[in-house]
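Posting for a labmate who doesn't have an account.
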Amino acid sequence: MRIGELSARTGASPRSLRYYEQQGLLAPERTPSGQRVYTPAHEAAVRQIQELFAAGFCSAVIQELLPAMSAPAVDGALLGDALAAAERRLRGERQAIDRELRELGLLRHRLGLAPDTHFSVEDGHHDDEHSQPAATDHRDRRLR
């Protein structure tokens, strides 16, 4: 099958499929003219890749886990360890988020602000098209 058909079957965009190939997660065959050709095995691999991305794994870890998932016998030890490590990391991040939420609540209370109070000191506007969204946190919560 061609990239468009694989995209339609899996819901992964052609751009995502090319990214998977670039990251070494997917290795389609090529026609003499250079077009990618995928098999049902590639379709299964894309579904596994999507599951792992949805679970929060980055492409480097996915590259390590895919062979363990698609081997004739699933490597339960490797996968079990990876999933347990991911769960520990996520629980740790949840605790960190809960701490930050508590600190925000304490700060809000100390400043005498209701939880849904929004204001901007710079331009006098609040909650309109001139308001700037909050800066995003620089920390990446992806599993590594």
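Reply:
Got it, the structure tokens are right above this. Residues 76-111 form the longest helix (36 residues).
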